[in-house]
Design a protein that fits this description.
Helix content: 25-40%
Shape: globular
Bound molecules: iron/sulfur cluster
Largest sheet: 5 strands, parallel
Number of helices: 13
Radius of gyration: 20 Å
Number of domains: 2
Strand order of the largest sheet: 2-1-3-4-5
CATH topology of the largest domain: Rossmann fold
Length: about 280
């Protein structure tokens, strides 16, 4: 539904997360002037003290991890014409979903120790679209400011934002990077084998989640000499859309890559399993 007001009112809300995505928006410097020409920001705890329940577009940061979170999110959904997931935790479960595959008691004990019984949370962290309908997604950890502006402009123009549905490897190849798996072929072959054989990510060497991760970041981590950690989430239908050329070259399967380090994909992987 299109917001009725001429200049839509925008509100930002945070749930379980580090607030780094809101910080990206707060730090937009001159780009934020373009934004406030077309929207009124009425609720943004990081940069203003005013509060309003009258808004058209709600940007949600953080994953949903308790009944209280879910009820609050549903209230926001009722108020807003559009709800947009801001960043990995809201869009895909993100870092918080690391714990989804761990025993709940163990996680509570590790994080809260003797105070664990005071915390009421679900045993899994969920993206916001597991609780309410969502109209748009800004992926990344943290989000990219230009992509944020593009998603806002697309919503206001009634268009679908142009978000890639192919993997990071495609951008990486266009940037002519040396593939992470080829940086030290001999050592890496052993590491890949080790990872495939025993799945011990902490011990493995260079490994890249680019073949299964949604593009849109211009492969920035590989460009800078590190590897893709999967922060933009799985490419849609990874079994069909993963970058086969790299997988075949290094003898990997989609599952082996996805299971390598499950940093951001916890919720998405469970969803995939449930669909199969
Ligand atoms: S696996 Fe990583 S380094 Fe290799 S091409 Fe893909 S994104 Fe680039
Ligand atoms: S390369 Fe991977 S981890 Fe880095 S920003 Fe892109 S999707 Fe995120």
């Amino acid at each position: 539904m299109k917001p009725e007001s001429v200049k839509p009112k925008v509100a930002f809300f945070d749930f379980a997360g580090c607030e780094g995505d809101q910080l990206q928006v707060a730090n937009m410097e001159e780009k934020i002037l373009d934004l406030i020409e077309v929207v009124d920001v009425v609720n943004f705890r990081e940069i203003m003290t005013e509060r309003s329940d009258d808004y058209d577009i709600a940007f949600i940061e953080g994953s949903i991890a308790s009944d209280h979170d879910a009820e609050r999110l549903k209230g926001i959904r009722e108020n807003a014409s559009w709800v947009v997931a801001l960043g990995s935790c809201a869009a895909i479960g993100g870092i918080n979903s690391i714990r989804n595959a761990q025993p709940y008691d163990l996680v509570q004990d590790r994080v809260y120790g003797d105070d664990a019984d005071k915390i009421e949370a679900w045993d899994v962290a969920k993206p916001i679209d597991a609780v309410v309908d969502v109209d748009g997604y800004v992926y990344g950890c943290p989000i990219n400011q230009d992509e944020f502006v593009h998603v806002v402009e697309s919503l206001l123009q009634g268009k679908d934002p142009n978000i890639p549905t192919y993997p990071v490897c495609v951008e990486c190849k266009m940037n002519e990077n040396v593939c992470v798996f080829a940086r030290d072929p001999e050592k890496n072959a052993a590491n890949i084998k080790q990872a495939v054989d025993n799945g011990s990510p902490a011990e493995a060497g260079p490994f890249c989640l680019g073949p299964v991760t949604r593009a849109g970041c211009d492969s920035q981590c590989v460009n800078e000499g590190t590897t893709c950690w999967g922060c933009r989430g799985l490419v849609p239908n990874p079994n069909e859309n993963a970058h086969q050329e790299v997988l075949e070259k290094y003898g990997l399967s989609v599952d082996e890559v996805m299971n390598k380090f499950n940093l951001y994909f916890g919720w998405q992987q469970e969803e995939l399993k449930n669909e199969q």
